[in-house]
Write a sequence for this structure.
């Protein structure tokens, strides 16, 4: 594997100079439809879009003293990016727009560069520090990590794992398996197709809007972040809520707040009463837990 | 009458004759219920035999004179002073309470010892990673360093609060889980922080 990557790197360096001399990037090469491609751009922006061609094409601009482009590869492996970037220099950084086969496996490294991914159906992995990450489309697996950047997931990714420190995470339309972890960052999830969801923060608030399918499961755990679940009713679900020092309030059916004990287990719906239905577990140390049953298709006033 | 009512009444029938009304109801029911009819016939036979027994049988005149001395001797063996019986009762309660307490507390003590061992491992890993982070932080930009340390401070505060709560309620398994989660978060975050320079 290492020799193949080295080969790809050598091929990339061989073809780089003409592009970066002008500050413009314009380079393409043929690859397999499921190529594994590594993209490296620390400052600026990186956009990766899937297309129906068995090739990679990179375009963009590099500011003066903003590093130089390298790129190349063949068959199953490819590598491209900007090298020689100075993280402390400031400035806009490089703009990199990359087209890859839709089924490619994409790995992206960023520091402060924003990353946008779209129309990919394979696996994507992004590692960043302060850059934001936006994922559109429906990749099979997505792993998105940043320390301070925001993460936005719009689409129907099958398996998503998002991790950030203080950045916000917003997920719309995820289905299947979702894992989100932040330290301070707030988490918002809007979905109706979540089969297995786990959301974890320290102080970040968690808001989930949408139904959990009858065979779905949602686990939320925070230290002192507030947890607000807005669940369309009617629903078949079993709730297991607990907090050490916080409070639990539910508002279902009649629309009035119902304070509960610090450990509350209850079921809603006929299926849940016989041990079926969605399973919703929420645990906090001191964060408040609020379950709000919304009439299906509408938003209750005041929420 | 129902079958259950008929059978309940027939249990006491041999010793307690039926009233005219009861008999009518039972006759009416048994005319259409073969099972109850069979039970009623059997009960009638027993009732007839009980009615024929001699009701004035006297026990032998020497029966009590044989029993009384043996009963007095037995009482002498089992009677104890009241204080001794009270002391025995107190002892029995104390011993059974202690055994129950030990049985209940033993698993909790074992679980606590297991958690303390786990917490020591977490603390060791955290210390190692913190040392590693201190060595690598100079390679980070000031902005990255500030972000990392701001997040670490949040994790540290949460860990401190959870540990403080556990100290006040050391057998609370939910608090143990929260402390363990806080340690895990800190370790994961430190692992990421210490590899940032290698990734870039």
């Amino acid at each position: 594997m290492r020799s193949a990557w080295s080969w790809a790197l050598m091929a990339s360096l061989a073809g780089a100079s003409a592009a970066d001399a002008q500050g413009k990037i314009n380079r393409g090469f043929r690859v397999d439809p499921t190529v594994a491609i590594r993209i490296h751009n620390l400052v600026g922006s990186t956009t990766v879009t899937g297309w129906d061609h068995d090739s990679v094409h990179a375009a963009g601009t590099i500011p003066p003293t903003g590093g130089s482009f390298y790129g190349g590869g063949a068959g199953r492996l490819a590598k491209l990016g900007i090298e020689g970037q100075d993280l402390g220099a400031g400035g806009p950084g490089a703009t990199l727009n990359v087209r890859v086969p839709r089924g490619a496996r994409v790995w992206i490294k960023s520091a402060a560069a924003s990353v946008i991914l779209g129309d990919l159906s394979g696996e994507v992995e992004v590692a960043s520090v302060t850059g934001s990450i936006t994922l559109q489309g429906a990749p099979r697996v997505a792993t998105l990590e940043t320390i301070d950047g925001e993460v936005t997931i719009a689409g129907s990714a099958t398996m998503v794992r998002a991790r950030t420190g203080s950045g916000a995470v917003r997920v719309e339309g995820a289905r299947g398996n979702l894992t989100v972890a932040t330290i301070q960052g707030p988490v918002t999830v809007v979905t109706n197709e979540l089969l297995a969801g786990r959301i974890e923060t320290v102080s970040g608030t968690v808001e989930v809007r949408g139904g959990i399918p009858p065979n779905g499961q949602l686990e939320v755990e925070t230290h002192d972040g507030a947890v607000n679940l807005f669940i369309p009713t009617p629903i078949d679900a079993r709730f297991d809520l607990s907090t050490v020092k916080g409070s639990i309030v539910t508002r279902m059916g009649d629309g009035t707040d119902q304070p509960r004990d610090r450990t509350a287990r209850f079921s809603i719906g006929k299926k849940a009463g016989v041990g079926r239905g969605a399973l919703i577990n929420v645990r906090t140390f001191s964060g408040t837990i609020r379950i709000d049953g919304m009439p299906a298709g509408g938003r209750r006033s005041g929420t | 009458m129902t079958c259950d009512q008929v059978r309940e009444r027939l249990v006491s029938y041999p010793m307690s004759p039926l009233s005219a009304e009861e008999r009518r109801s039972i006759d009416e029911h048994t005319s259409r219920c073969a099972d109850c009819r069979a039970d009623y016939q059997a009960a009638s036979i027993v009732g007839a035999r009980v009615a024929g027994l001699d009701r004035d049988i006297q026990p032998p005149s020497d029966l009590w004179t044989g029993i009384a001395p043996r009963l007095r001797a037995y009482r002498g063996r089992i009677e104890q002073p009241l204080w001794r019986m009270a002391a025995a009762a107190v002892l029995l309660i104390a011993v059974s309470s202690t055994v129950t307490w030990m049985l209940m507390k033993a698993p909790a003590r074992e679980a606590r010892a297991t958690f303390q061992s786990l917490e020591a491992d977490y603390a060791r890993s955290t210390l190692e990673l913190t040392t590693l982070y201190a060595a690598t932080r100079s390679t980070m930009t000031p902005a990255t360093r500030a972000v990392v340390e701001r997040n670490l401070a949040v994790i540290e505060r949460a860990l401190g609060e959870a540990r403080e709560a556990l100290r006040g309620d050391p057998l609370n398994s939910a608090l143990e889980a929260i402390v363990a989660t806080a340690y895990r978060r800190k370790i994961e975050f430190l692992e990421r922080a210490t590899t940032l320079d290698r990734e870039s």
About this structure: Chain B has a mean pLDDT of 80. Residues 108-199 of chain B form one domain.
